[in-house]
Each structure stands twice: as C-alpha cells, then as structure tokens.
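G., the chain you wanted modeled:
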Amino acid sequence: MGGTVVIVVWGGCLGILSWFGLCPPAGWMIYAAAALFGAIGLLDDVLSLPHHGREGSGLRPWHKIVLGTAAWALLVGLFPQLLETEYAVPFSSYLVRIPGWLAFPITWFAFNGSTNSMNLTDGLDGLAAGVAILSAVGLVVALPGTASATAVVPLIGILIGFLWINSYPSRLFMGDVGSFALGAAVAVLAVDGNVVFLLPFFAAVPLLEAISVIAQVGLFRVTGVRLFRMSPLHHHFEETTGSQRPFLLPTATWAEPRITLRFWIVHALFVAIGVLAAR
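Predicted structure as tokens:
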C-alpha cells in the first residue's frame, strides 16, 4: 500500500500550492479522481492482507468495475465539465464536439480502462511508477499551459522519489491503491485536456498489458491453448521455475530489471508519438 504515501504527500503539496494561490481548481479535480479510485485500490489491498496478496484474493474484477463506475459517476457529478468537452483528433488541428450522452460512455471507459490497466501493469518493481512518470510528463508536454497539468508536476517529482525506493529490488510496493490512483490521474488529464482519443498512446504499456490478459483468457477458454507463457505481458518474459505449459508466442528470458527498462523504453516511444499527435 505504498501508493498511500504518494497520495498523501501529493495532497500536502497541492495544499501548500493552494495556500500561495498556485494550485488551480482543476488541480483538485485530478487529485479527487486519484483519491477516489485510490480508495478502491486501498479496499482491495486491505481485503488481500489476510490472504497475503494471493491470486484471487481481494476484490473481484466485477467489484472493481462497479466501484469504479460509482467513483466515476461521483467525479462527474462534482466536475460536470468532464462531460462538456471537445476532443482533439489525432495528428490534426480538428476538434470534435461530443454530446453528453456519448461523452458519458467514453469517459467511463477511459477511467475504468486506465485504472484497471495500470493495476495490471504493477507487477514488477518500478514498472508502474516509471510508466506513470512517462505518461504524466508526456501529457504535461502535450498540454502546455493547461491548468490541470500544473498540478501534475508535483506528482511527477513525488513519483521520481518513490521510484528511488520502488526500483528493483523494491523496498516499498505501490499496491492497488497506487496503481488505481495513477491510472485515474492519467485518465482525468487526458479527458480534461481534450486528448482522450490519444489516451492509447499515453497509456500504451498498460493498454498492451490489458490486451494480453484479455487475449490470454479468451483464447484459453475457447481452445484450451495459452497465447503467452504468462499474462499480463511483462510476465511472458520472466524466468519461471517448474513445469512449463505450452504456449503459442515466442518469448525470451530476461531479468526483471531488464524487462522493466525495456517496457519503459517502449512506453516512452508511444508517449512521444502521442505528444506529436497532440500538436
């Protein structure tokens, strides 16, 4: 539950900035999103404690979706401007006006998809924290002068400090509270910054992790054959012990720090494309 430290320290930073009139109201909107979804992750972590975090303990996937929907609905109720926006078309200067009835499912998918995908990404020491830093930096660069982006700068600094002790071998684990909070922060930045259609670039590695899980489970249920050695995707490249079940895709065996670093590189490339697509 190390992500609790990130949320608390970030809230303190925003409080200090507000005291000096440097934190715009949109900054608290991002923090509210992170805190609401972080609370879901905190509940999941607490329920997992008696079972030592074993697979299947804690909240079920449908529990997370239901609670995520409630958190998203509360967030939209507090900040209705999240449904009143124009979305940028990638690699163009065009803006598409989205009616409220259509913005409703789009933003729901953005928040729940981003939070659950970031949760799947948090499986190796430092992976999710590094990915979140790259996403936040990319969104700040893509949205210069945006009020909401200003509040993310302290979060970037906090995550860099967190990564110092979260990198391999980790001495403090982020937990679901951190991954859910960071996923929500990335989502609300994209929605409020009118670049929700670019979210696949700024959340590329989490998206790939989620797709790998969906593909693995779907193919296995239909054919009984595994696509990856393990899912989410980062586990496909991990060294494993014991008997190997057959799987379809070729793989390599890398040390954990190498997997993390290479996933950061891939994510950085996608984030750079996202920045270019937003210009």
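The radius of gyration is 18 Å.

Shout if anything looks off.
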